[in-house]
Amino acid sequence: MELKGKIAVITGGAGGIGLATAQLFLEQGAAGVAVVDFSQEYLNTGQRQLSDSRVIWIQADVATAAGVQKYMGEVENVYGRLDVLFLNAGVEGVVKPIIDYPEEVFDHVMAVNVKGVWLGMKYGFPLLKKSGGGSVIITSSVAGLGGTPSVSAYVASKHATIGLMRTGALEGAPDQIRVNTIHPSPVDNRMMRSLEDGFAPGQGDAVKENFTKMIPLGRYGTNEDIAQLALFLASDRSSFITGATYVIDGGMKA
Ligand SMILES: NC(=O)c1ccc[n+]([C@@H]2O[C@H](COP(=O)([O-])OP(=O)(O)OC[C@H]3O[C@@H](n4cnc5c(N)ncnc54)[C@H](O)[C@@H]3O)[C@@H](O)[C@H]2O)c1
Question: How many C-alpha atoms does 153 have within 13 Å on its Cβ side?
Fold first, then answer.
């Protein structure tokens, strides 16, 4: 019961990693979990999979101040406090070289993956401070630690979250707010299916095989693998850890 009594927000909460984390946080005794997602369809599916009276399901766009104020406001009204803020919502954009990459897709990826994280801390810090501190976990990627051709916006956005995390860690420390990033390699879920198909339309399986060869442990990560790392950073077991980057990649970056 590592999260006994704690209140958590998970953005992108109805996606693969988000929903697995919500389930684990509930198993570990969380008193409340707010699942925030842009997609009403994913929220409906999530609600069917995970029916638990401690969960609130919130449709909101993390890329806008109004969306972030909406979900923070509901969390404050329903639970009255916040202990764990998992800023996990993200979009992959498209797979195209820089010279062909559509400007509006670049702007959208940056809005969700970077501004969404910044807004989350901007409106989340006051709530965490009122609770006497807490943990912010930001989902970056191995794409935040090195380049990959044809995903410039995604790579740039995931590098940028490290800068936000480091600044947030320093600004939050006096109030006992910890901020860390996690950096998964490919995870076996919807986002990777979309990227695999983007790299070689109709030949996703071959792309997956190639990516898998780059991972020494010989497999993609699972949503549950990533949820376990989020749990560690959310819990008091990591109470002296802030400002850090956590790679979870089966050895890919080694
Ligand atoms: N899947 C991978 O291989 C992988 C690897 C490294 C990092 N990541 C990161 O993990 C995080 C979670 O992704 P996932 O793998 O679970 O994929 P996913 O696509 O299943 O989940 C992402 C969720 O974010 C939501 N979302 C998108 N835009 C939003 C917005 N504007 N406001 C609110 N919610 C929004 C989506 O609706 C979706 O439910 C992302 O930040 C992603 O970049 C994924």
Answer: 23
Which uninterrupted H or E stretch holds 118?
Answer: helix 116-130
Distance from the CA of 174 to the center of ligand 1, in angstroms? 30
Q: What is the pLDDT of residues 205-241, one digit of tens each?
A: 999 999 999 999 999 999 999 999 999 999 999 999 9
Could you tell me the domains of the chain?
7-185+223-248 (3.40.50.720), 190-220 (no CATH)
Residue 39: per-residue pLDDT: 98
Taking a C-beta distance cutoff of 8 angstroms, is the pair 113, 120 a contact?
no
Catalytic residues: 154
Q: For ligand 1, say whether the CB of 93 is within 6 Å of any of its atoms.
A: no
Distance, in Å, from the CA atom of 87 to the CA atom of 12, rounded to the nearest integer, reads 8
Which of 9, 11, 17, 109 gets mutated to test ligand 1 (max ligand atoms within 8 A of its CB)?
17
Model confidence at 10, pLDDT cuts 50, 70, 90, reads very high
Flag whether the pTM goes above 0.90. Answer: yes
Q: What is the Cα–Cα distance from 234 to 54, expressed in whole angstroms?
A: 17
Burial status of residue 211 (CB atoms within 10 A of its CB: 0-12, 13-18, 19 or more)? middle
For the stretch 65-76, pLDDT in tens is 999 999 999 999
Number of the ligand 1 atom closest to the C-alpha atom of 220: 3
CA 225 to CA 249: how far, in whole Å? 10
